[in-house]
Specification:
It contains 19 helices and no strands. The chain has a domain at 1-222. By secondary structure, it is mainly α. 85% of the residues lie in helices and 0% in strands.
């Protein structure tokens, strides 16, 4: 392949990754915006009791959803690898096996929803009318979860084809449809069951669009369930089990902190922790989670034996991810206290310390959103899985110890300490596995990020001198000043030469980059 062809291929890969990650961020943004708009309407029109029943039913059904067992991720990873070699016979065998499993899981979740709707109302402290409402809400939400697993057959295949922009567009359509029918039904005086019933229409439309798109895009693929025996299912089940265990580790790492605060410090401490955690988690969802779209790309490159492109993918996207997350979490560290004071009041100022420590933890994990996805996509998941479980266990233990000594801030501090140690281990493993130069991998990016952080902080401080009165507008101005200073340094120093070259070709910034 000539150098010109290599640049064209690399450019196409970069554009596809950027398209998929940006569309995933747009999907999360629209979903968060719709939730922000609807929650006040739900509490107003449904009332606190009916809305509480809904939240309770959703929370319990989320445990049923664990029965999905990581099958969608397994489908995406293995189908992408088979498709990369052009072996559609093998691709259809994988699809048939996993479709069979996913239909079976869907049936189990639906059965669990039926049984749960009969038994669970007697466990919770509910009034008779609330128990009846919970029963129907749990049943409907459970069946929707079952249908969701089945529609994931098509959506997982769409991910394997790296057509995330289409998949994310469908999710955005579903979120906007939910906004539209919720507003109409609530204004007309309908209640919770009408809202849940309307969601079935949206699920049906999305499934139909999934089906039609994949039939048009990849007519070679067959989505019919077909079982080829346990011998072929074994490697799929092994990977799926690992994904399931990683989900459990994620639950332990992310959800135990608030439980520990509730047990040892009480509900007020939980509220203080939640305010800081909410800002940290919103930024994580919008800007870090989209790196998950890299898995089918990594699987395809691994199946093709293109190790050089895998190394380029790791270095280039990691440097960009470090830049993006540093540009978000540095301002949260610098200006989080002022924002929280304006947002929820002086009584939650301790939440700013929680936010600061969680932000440092996220910065320690910045490149792992890319690193972890590529390790799983290339089948190197055993060591990361062990590290994630060890991290979750040690984090919980250290959180209890520091909680007793330092209160709610100690819990967030424990997350930072354990996250940093786990990333030292995982980064060393990744460097060894892929033969990376540490400077090219993350060193250059962090030098650019730290210099950019200092320049951005100085520019933000200048805005503070110009506008000493604390307000949301001043914080917005400080944030904009920070971003200008930060990205000037990050672009010139922190990005890899290949990434700067891609930017120069894409945006024609030749004068800036030399």
């Amino acid at each position: 392949m000539t150098s010109v062809e290599q640049r064209k291929t690399g450019g196409g890969l970069a554009r596809r990754i950027a398209r998929n990650m940006l569309s995933r961020s747009a999907r999360h943004f629209v979903s968060a915006l719709v939730g922000f708009i609807l929650i006040p309407m739900f509490t107003k029109y449904l009332g606190a009791a009916q809305y509480g029943v809904w939240v309770l039913a959703q929370s319990v059904v989320s445990y049923l959803s664990l029965l999905e067992f990581g099958l969608t991720t397994t489908l995406t990873r293995h189908l992408a690898a088979a498709k990369a070699t052009g072996d559609y016979n093998q691709a259809n065998r994988i699809l048939g096996q996993l479709a069979t499993m996913m239909w079976g899981v869907g049936f189990l979740i639906a059965l669990g929803a039926i049984i749960g709707s009969l038994l669970l109302p007697h466990i919770f402290k509910l009034e008779p009318d609330q128990a009846k409402l919970f029963q129907w809400a749990f049943l409907l939400i459970g069946i929707q979860a079952a249908l969701g697993v089945i529609t994931n057959i098509w959506e997982g295949a769409m991910g394997a084809a790296e057509d995330y922009h289409v998949l994310n567009g469908l999710y955005i359509f579903a979120a906007l449809a939910r906004l539209a029918y919720s507003v109409v039904l609530l204004k007309l005086g309908y209640g919770l069951l009408a809202l849940l019933s309307a969601q079935f229409v949206v699920i049906g439309i999305v499934w139909l669009l999934d089906h039609l798109y994949m039939k048009w895009r990849y007519p070679q693929l067959s989505f019919r369930p077909k079982w080829f025996g346990w011998k072929e299912a074994k490697p799929l089940a092994k990977f799926s089990s690992a994904v399931f265990l990683s989900h459990i580790a994620g639950l332990l790492a992310n959800d135990t902190d608030k439980v520990i605060a509730g047990i040892f410090l009480g509900p007020t401490a939980v509220a203080i922790y939640q305010v800081g955690y909410k800002l940290y988690d919103l930024a994580r969802t919008l800007f870090a989670a989209p790196a998950g779209v890299l898995m089918p790309t990594a699987s395809r490159l691994a199946a093709q034996g293109d190790h050089e492109k895998l190394r380029q993918l790791l270095c280039q996207v990691s440097s960009v991810m470090i830049g993006i997350l540093a540009s978000i979490y540095f301002p949260l560290i610098f200006y989080g206290k002022d924002f929280i004071r304006l947002w929820v009041g002086h009584e939650f100022e301790q939440s700013a310390l929680v936010l600061m420590w969680l932000s440092i933890a996220m910065l320690a994990w910045a490149h792992d959103w890319v690193q972890g996805t590529i390790l799983w996509g290339t089948g190197r998941y055993q060591t990361p899985l062990k590290v994630y479980f060890l991290y979750a266990t040690v984090n919980a233990s250290l959180s209890i110890l520091l909680c007793l000594k330092l209160g709610v801030v100690g819990i967030a501090m424990a997350t930072t300490v354990t996250a940093t140690l786990s990333q030292i281990v995982l980064t060393s493993y990744t460097v060894k596995q892929f033969g990376l130069n540490l400077k090219d991998y993350i060193g250059r990016a962090w030098i650019g990020a730290f210099i950019g952080g200092v320049i951005g902080w100085l520019m933000g401080d200048l805005a503070k001198v110009m506008f000493p009165q604390l307000s949301f507008w001043r914080l917005l101005l400080q944030g904009l000043a920070f971003e200008i200073g930060f990205w000037f340094s990050m672009t010139l120093i922190g990005l890899t030469p290949q990434t700067r070259e891609q930017l120069r070709r894409t945006f024609r910034l030749g004068a800036l980059f030399g």
